[in-house]
Design a protein that fits this description.
The protein is of the alpha/beta class and 473 residues long. Helix content is 27%, strand content 26%.
């Protein structure tokens, strides 16, 4: 993604123009536990002409801007597509609008999908016959049944403004040292070129189906040997595959503009992977940025957002992209568990404040059992479908994600935001239309009164316990 840089002079002019034109009206949308508020317009505030600093204050400075936003969205997996296909037509349309229509729904603008099968497929598969090193049998017939039609409908609902990127979970078994798509294993060196050619085949095949592929990650979770499709790369192996095979192969096949994302794993070791790959000039020139997940820690403490910020500090020209996160342990009694939603809220705010340009949830739709999944690795999605009745189950996580994706649009720029108390989490953006979006989250058991302060003006409001608000002004 092309970065936009403003000179000090232009920032000053922009800030002065903003001071003169700031609207006095603020529209507040809220979602709160133990209420009926779900992305509900709850209040209209008026800025006073006096800056009043309260004990709990949120300070927004639009003259200090940072990264531009690529998009916010989720993953269309085989599981999501298979569940979608079981829905009645009216429920299919409802789901498409709920996710991809910015007016009727929450306006997803970013989609991840997978190359070959993943755990959220009904079976393991590849696009070639076993042993076909030359890829003569390559075809994506499998994906044409469910996944490709779903993605195409999503693109159409999003008015053809959907960024789609892809990730492989494993090469074909014969290309790996363990001769198995599952349980880790490594890509054998004699198949490096064949595997690089495989990405080219995938991109071209999907684009022939009318699905533009914006970019790809090299490997999903390259440090994890999973019971499902997985493949291990050390940082050095990923670096060398990128600079000697994948990068040059895409370039030779007129696909050099496709964005390549390295790592695609948890925040805990993101710095080491960035150091090894980005410090190598030949590898770094092919890398658009680095992707990360959120599974490194939760129960023992807050996730390691500081690691993301440190990568941004060390490599400001590289982009940070959150590529996957979900609540991993499925429990049908917890569809409405509020803590799941708050996990999303905290993570999205902290990741954006650390410099992240895009945020991608995992499966956008699963069934009432948290699947299908061919290894029993069931989990939560923002929306589940009861395949017996055709009903859609909207979890609180859907609404929390929507407080960002519906209002923070592609190419919005993050601006400086700080809170006076740790009880509130907050981030702010300016959209292309000049509107400022400030998201505020309260994870406390009590309501909090706060003052929003910007350019010498202030507005007083209240946020309920365990609630999230989006302020538009």
């Amino acid at each position: 993604m092309r970065k936009l840089f403003l000179t000090t002079f232009s920032l000053l002019i922009f800030g002065n123009m903003f001071c003169q034109k700031i609207s006095k009206d603020i529209t507040v949308y809220s979602t709160a536990e133990n209420t009926n508020q779900r992305l509900t317009k709850t209040e209209s505030l008026i800025f006073s002409d006096k800056e009043t600093v309260a004990d709990v204050s949120i300070f927004v400075n639009p003259q200090k801007s940072f990264q531009s936003i690529l998009g916010i969205g989720g993953a269309i997996t085989d599981a999501s597509a298979e569940v979608f296909a079981k829905l009645p037509n009216e429920k299919q349309n409802e789901l498409l609008n709920a996710y991809f229509d910015a007016t009727k729904g929450i306006g997803y603008s970013l989609v991840r999908t997978h190359i070959n099968s993943c755990d959220f497929s009904s079976e393991s598969y590849t696009y070639i016959a076993e042993g076909d090193k030359l890829l003569k049998t390559f075809n994506i017939l499998h994906d044409k049944s469910f996944r490709i039609p779903f993605i195409k409908k999503a693109i159409k609902t999003a008015n053809n403004k959907l960024v789609v990127y892809a990730s492989p979970w494993s090469p074909p078994a014969f290309m790996k040292d363990n001769k198995n798509m599952l349980h880790g294993g490594k890509l054998l060196p004699e198949f490096y070129q064949s595997w690089a050619n495989y990405y080219v085949k995938f991109i071209n095949a999907y684009q022939q189906e009318g699905i533009p592929i914006w970019g790809l990650t090299i490997q999903n979770e390259p440090m994890a040997s999973q019971t499902w499709e997985s493949c291990i790369y050390t940082a050095e192996e990923e670096r060398d595959f990128l600079k000697n095979f994948l990068g040059p192969t895409l370039a030779k096949n007129a696909l050099g503009t496709k964005k390549i994302i390295v790592y695609d794993h948890n925040r805990d070791f993101i710095n080491q992977r960035a150091n090894v790959i980005f410090d190598d000039a030949e590898a770094s020139k092919y890398a658009w940025g680095i992707g990360f997940h959120w599974y490194e820690t939760w129960a023992g403490g807050e996730p390691m957002h500081i690691n993301v910020a440190k990568v941004h500090e060390a490599y400001p020209s590289k982009n940070l992209l959150f590529t996957e996160g979900c609540v991993e342990v499925f429990n049908p009694q917890k569809f409405n568990f509020w803590g799941n939603a708050e996990r999303y809220g905290r993570s999205i705010i902290n990741d954006f404040n650390a410099g992240t340009v895009g945020w991608t949830d995992w499966n956008i739709l699963l069934d009432e059992h948290g699947g299908p999944n061919h290894v029993g690795n069931f989990c939560f999605a923002p929306i589940h479908a009861d395949t017996k009745t055709g009903a859609l189950i909207y979890t609180p996580s859907y609404y929390y994600i929507g407080h960002f994706s519906k209002f923070i649009r592609p190419n919005a720029k993050r601006i400086s935001t700080a809170t006076s108390k740790s009880q509130l989490f907050s981030t702010s953006f300016i959209n292309n239309d000049g509107k400022i979006v400030t998201v505020i989250m309260n994870g406390e058991d009590k309501s909090l009164t706060y003052n929003l302060i910007i350019n010498g003006k202030s507005a007083k409001s209240l946020i309920l316990p365990h609630a999230i608000q989006t302020l538009i002004y």
